[in-house]
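Collaborator request, handled under Task 6.
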Amino acid sequence: MIAPLSSDIFHPGQVLNNTYEIIEILGRGGTGEVYLARNQVVERDVAIKALSARFSGNTDYLELMKREEQMRNIIHDAVVRYSECSRSDSGQVFLVMDHIEGPSLNQVMGERRLDDRALMIIAHRVLEGLAATHAQGIVHRDLSPDNIILRGGKPESATIIDFGIAKDTAAGARTIVGSEFAGKYEYAAPEQLDGKSDYRSDLYGLGALLLAAARQKVPQVGTSPGEVVRFKRGPLDTSGIEAPLKDLIDWLTDPDPARRPQTAVEALARLDKWLKPDTHR
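Structure tokens returned to the collaborator:
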């Protein structure tokens, strides 16, 4: 449990919009905080992500928050469900979403090394979620180990969170926000550095986070813009990773988007064969 601070946006016992009672803080980031709350009307726990006051008036951050809220119409077990975007009486913009009980992949990889099959099962689950979101025209742009929650600690119940709002929670990761880009250098596709992104950018992010989990460390991409650009031009170092996980990561993270899978559905089809080698599809 994280101890509350006087500087927190909300405090335990506080009730937002006559509905959501704050229970405890779950995490703090560079732009806001996440809380466990209780919907007093339907008596259900929810997660509330609050944008701090100094960002609640920033157009770029508000656009990211609104883009995330648009996810409420996507219903898929591998994607967090959003229900409301609101503003508190004191001016903080906040999102209400399902509370997913379980550790993030970032937490798990800090404690132990998941085996290759578990990582491929996580990949399959994330690809299912991406297929659902991409079908609605939404690109995540910020996939990283802290944005994958293992519901109940199970790889087969991995759930994608944080569609759009930037935050600085992964150790060593730097989140960039702007009108064209929201992501972390460590996991961003090369084209994102030029302000470009599409569905294939999310596939690169998935491959990069799988490699980070396999290595149990955040990628070191450099400390200056030039170093980052040079790093992203080449393939990721997957030496020591065994096939087929290596093959999957290499395919997903090809620096050239044209050589990556073109859709999450395409990646799923090949991953199915790797996970079930005795099936003929």
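The cover message to the collaborator said: "Residues 165-181 have pLDDT under 50 and may be disordered. The two ends are 47 Å apart (CA to CA). Please let us know whether this matches your experimental observations."
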